Amino acid sequence: QVQLVESGGGLVQAGGSLRLSCAASDSSFSINDMGWYRQAPGKQRELVAAITSGSSTNYADLVKGRFTISRDNGKNTVYLQMNSLKPEDTAVYYCNAKKYLGGGIHLTYWGQGTQVTVSS
User: What φ, ψ does residue 96 adopt, rounded to 5°?
Assistant: First the structure.
């Protein structure tokens, strides 16, 4: 069972930047897609950005042009560089990893979440 360990959250003023990191506990574990989700109080968890093992990326419209997702396949680590942060970006950010087993079946792993708070 692989675990995802996140780091890099915190408190920042509007317009500032933060970089989140998420590392899988087993660097040799084969992971396909990785991504970041967030959940604000009273709201559903939503996709922020995702990246495939081939580094194709997908972003939520609200973060396009401000956030950048990247990964280091050798380290099974995914990063989220967040620039021009806004108060509405305040949420708990969760790392996500998927391993495809074939036949439409996949395993999904979640990190414990890291708080990002943007003050106005």
Answer: -135, 140
